[in-house]
Design a protein that fits this description.
Strand order of the largest sheet: 10-11-1-12
Strand content: 25-35%
Number of helices: 4
Largest sheet: 4 strands, antiparallel
Shape: elongated
Helix content: 25-40%
Order of helices and strands: EHEEEEEHEHEEEEEH
Number of strands: 12
Length: 156
Amino acid sequence: MKFKVVKGTDTFSKLEAINKKNKECNKEALTLVESWGLEKFGIDSYGVAGGISCVKADEKPKGFKQVGKKNQGLYYPKANNKELINQIKALTVVSTNEFNECIGFESQFRGLSHYRYFGMITRSDYFLIDIDNECDYTPREDMLEILESEYKSLSK
């Protein structure tokens, strides 16, 4: 299911606010990672934005442990590295529930698939929303359902 949410609607305002918070959370996390002398990070595993689930580095940073596969170069502070772990815990995170509430979407299982949140493309005058067709979802009244072809055209 594809939807367009246009500027001036209540849902647009909610999406605009959550999008702003997403950017602020990720900026906050990046600033922290950069203070450690690193440049890349993975967002919190249980959120949509913010937090840190790992950092990416060519070599294992001191006080970190490897997470993921060895060739991925992903690391997280060791359990005894309390200072860094507390810094990570203090970061703001946008939860999937907070994100989903903007359009009334609920996390759900369909068969073997878990749909935690919806897809969103941001433009200045509208948002594009992508929800898998298998999901049980009723759009808000101010959301316009659009064809796949229009979605592809608008998302370029």
